[in-house]
Every structure is written in structure tokens, then in C-alpha cells.
Known about the structure:
The complex is a heterodimer.
Chain A: H1 2-9, H2 18-28, H3 32-43, H4 53-63, H5 78-88, H6 93-102
Chain B: E1 4-7, E2 13-16, H1 18-36, H2 43-54, H3 77-80, H4 94-103, E3 110-118, H5 119-122, H6 126-139, E4 144-149, H7 165-170, H8 174-201, E5 206-212, H9 217-233, E6 238-243, E7 256-257, E8 260-261, H10 267-277, E9 281-283, H11 294-311, H12 335-349
Parallel strand pairs in B: 3-4, 4-5, 5-6, 6-9
Antiparallel strand pairs in B: 1-2, 7-8
Amino acid sequence: MAIPHYMTAGMGGIRSAGDLVARMQFSKNMKIGKAKEYVAKKLGVSTLEIADEYLMRELREELKIGVITGVPGAPRGIAAKMNIESILDVKINSCEIFRKNTKK
Amino acid sequence: MTEYYTRRGDGKRITMTKKQFMDDIQDGMADAADMGEIPVLNANEVEVLLGILMTRDRIVGVEPGNEVVLTYDIGQLDFTGDNGNSGNGVDVGRLESAMLHERALAADTFELAHADYSIKPVKPIISNEMQTMEQIQNQITVPFFYGAMPNAGLYYAPDGPYGNPTDLMREFKIEEAMTAAELTADHLARDIEYVATRMNAAGADGFNFDTTASAGDADFVGTLRGAEKLRKACPDAYIMIGMAGESIMGIHGSIEYAGEAVAGKYPHQQIKFAEKAGANVFGPVVNTNTSKSLAWNLARSVTFIKECIKVAKIPCHVNMGMGVGGIPMCETVPLDAITRCGKAMVEIAKVDGI
């Protein structure tokens, strides 16, 4: 079911900015329109562009917030999420635990 | 008379005329309106729905800009599970499955799941689940939940410590049946707190309560109380409450949450309980009737969900798996049906996610 739903209506996760919009829905109870506006403003692009894979591929690599391809040295996982925290101005649980464990 | 390919609720390909589509749309909407005491779709929405159903293209999609967020149930079991879970039977690891969903299957979010996908069996292996969550959180970028069904059925005999209400009712032991359901709700809430707070300590972004109320009203109340405990213990946890069915079965009959009985409630009423319990996202369900057409089922589902979205204060991710949300009840769901249902839910009901 994952593929047809993505093709019909999905944002595409880290192919675009789907993970970022999801974070705003869950962390701030934002409905889809408001969550997209928030993310678009933080990224400095339009709400149409945050679901544009072409534009977001370059932007995600530039912002170091995770891309779908195996780019050596590109942050992913905790490192990417720490950058997402800064950009979206949110706290992410796994990053908080990472900081606590490293005492940083 | 021109005929169009479409589907029956069991997935079988059938043909229908424009008039037949319109008749089934009207009947489906009327059924939802009657059961839920809610308004039908307006004339413009009916026209849009008719257009989606009559499109001759194999697949359809939303307009650019209308994309929504996807959340998932059952975690990696969609790869590893057997056909009872609609799984592929591919024994891939849980870390690899999460990575594949994020980087190859365009997942906006994903989740970790126990093989039995229920709260109760997680307890004895909680440390194992916490270790796996910690490892995946180091690698994954998208929001990553722990997911499980509350599954209150596991607390009733012969699997659990309490009498089985359906057996007790057959013996006319009504009070005993109600007591068993109440004790189960309390036990479930305690177990949810135990499991969910530990998964939060392991770095989970949040918890997905999936197929909530599958065992009826006490299942729903136990889940709400559990979610409330999780919210209190972990104020920033992402909480998603997804339902099992469109109406809550009254196994107890009068068990209450926040002073109101939950049995018999429909999606636009269920969401109010989820909001009170502290959910961030609600997952409404509308069941598919396998004997009716896709047009009937989709019109009925969109009518219910539109009303839920209208009253919602939190985002709603509508359930769109096999046999829900207008989608036919079959294991290999036809693409034409899935894409039509997705487009209608996003562009007519205005869901926040799927």
C-alpha cells in the first residue's frame, strides 16, 4: 500500500519535506495547511516547492537534513535530526537523549 | 449507455454507467448521513467525486500542492509478516525495513513493531524493543514511532486474567461481563503506560495506538486512559490514536471516558475523546461493505470523514488500508481503487494525512 499511496497523495518523506511536515503535525498539532506553511517559511521556499523532489533534493543536502541516496559524509539519522531541530525550532526526543548521553 | 471500469467492495472488477455511479454515490452518502446523523456532501463535492470515479485513467493523483503526510501501521511486518498481516513473508531485519521505508518507499514517518503487534506481549521483551528503538533512532531521519494495537482481547480468557465478556453474556452474567471489561480497561491503561514510557526513554518520537477499540468500548477507554498517562509522563511524545472501526462496539455498553459513554460513537464523535486524552493525530476509520460498489463505499467514507475533519482540532490521518476508507477488502488491492480513494479523501474530505 505504501507505493500507491505515495504516488497518489504522499509528500515523499525525505525525497521532499514530508518528514518535516509530519514533525510539525505531531509536535504542534498543526493541520496540513498550517504545517506546510510553517515548514516552507523555515526553509525559505513555497508550500508548493516543499513537495518538489527536484528542488528539495538539493536543498536537503545543502541544509544537511538527510537525503535518500548514500552520499558519503552527508548527515543522516541523529546528525540530520539535530539540524532539523535547529531549522524547525523544535526538540526531537532521540536528539535530547543523545545530548544527555554525550553530556553536550 | 457508456460503461466505465470500476470495483466492487471485494475488489472484483465491474462496469457501471454514469447513472449507476450517481445512484450509488447518493445511496452511500445517505447511509453515512443516516447512521452518523451528519450532512451529506454538497453538489460540487458530488460532482468532483463522480469525476474521480469516472476517470478512464488507470491511476489518479492529487494536484501538486495538495500532497499530505503518510503514517503507517504494523511497522516492518508489512515485509516480514505472513498473509494474516498482509505481509510479504520476507525475513528482513527491523533496522533494514525502517531504512527501506525511509529511503526507498518515500515514507514520511515509520514505526517499530513487535511480531504480535499488541501491547501485552511487548512487556516481557521490553528491553529488546528498547535496544532496537535506540539503534534505529541513530540511523533514521523521519519521525519513528513504536506501534502496537491495544488489543484488549488478549486480557480476556483464555488468553488473559479476566473472564471473557462475550462468554459471560451468553450465560446471562451481565454484571460479571461488565466488571471484566472494566478491569481490562484498567489493566490495559497500566500496560500502555509501562510500554510507551519505556519506548519514549529509548528515543521513540512517539506511540501509534493502532486498531484502537478492536475489542470494543473498554478497549477504547483503556487506550484513552493509557494515552493520558503517556501524555502526563512524556509531555512532548507524539501520540497517534488510530481506530479499528467506524463505530465502537458496546461490549461493556456503558463504560465512560470523561463522563461520557463511548459505545456506538462514530468518527466525528470519537475524535473528541482522542483530543481529550492528549492525542496529536487521530486516525478515523470507515469500513468497506464488500457487496457494494466502490462508488457507494467511497461516497459513504468521504461523508463520514469530511464531518470528522470539520470538527477536528487536531490533524486527522484517515485509515486507507484494505477494507477501510472506501478501499476494497482484499489482499492485493487494485491500484485504480486505491488511487481514487486517496484522491477523494484528500481533495474532498480534506484529510491531513493518510
